[in-house]
Amino acid sequence: MGILTVTRDVDAVTGVISLPIRDIAFLEYASQIDRVIVHTINEMFYMPGTLKYWQSALDSSGYNFASVDRTNVVNLDKIVLVDEIYRVAYFESSITKTTKKCTFTIINFDKFQKKYEQFSKSTSALATT
Questions:
Q1: pTM of the model
Q2: pLDDT digits (tens, 9 = 90+) for 28-57
Q3: Pick from 13, 25, 55, 123: most CB atoms within 10 A?
Q4: What is the pLDDT of residues 82-110, one digit of tens each?
């Protein structure tokens, strides 16, 4: 099981905690605080670095993360629904006002769809064997 060391607050006043990578829905870069915000379904955490660095590290470690715009990298394993009209990924099947979601740029949406379809097919094939 892979983990990331994150903090619950921007300045790390509360110390560090270990977060299982499988719990991450998406990563978001916030330039105003110069941190990567790590989103799970219910919480937000913080860590230093760039999205490009973390996406590369996670992908090189066998995880399935995809860049969807300049500020968001999504965990393909956590996507439950994709709204193709508004180009939004959801991480829960019941959509409410508080449901976490991740939007895509028009340019990256086609790339994402292809990667997501390939990933979904390989996951389905594994489940049937």
A1: 0.83
A2: 999 999 999 999 999 999 999 999 999 999
A3: 25
A4: 888 888 889 998 899 888 998 888 777 87
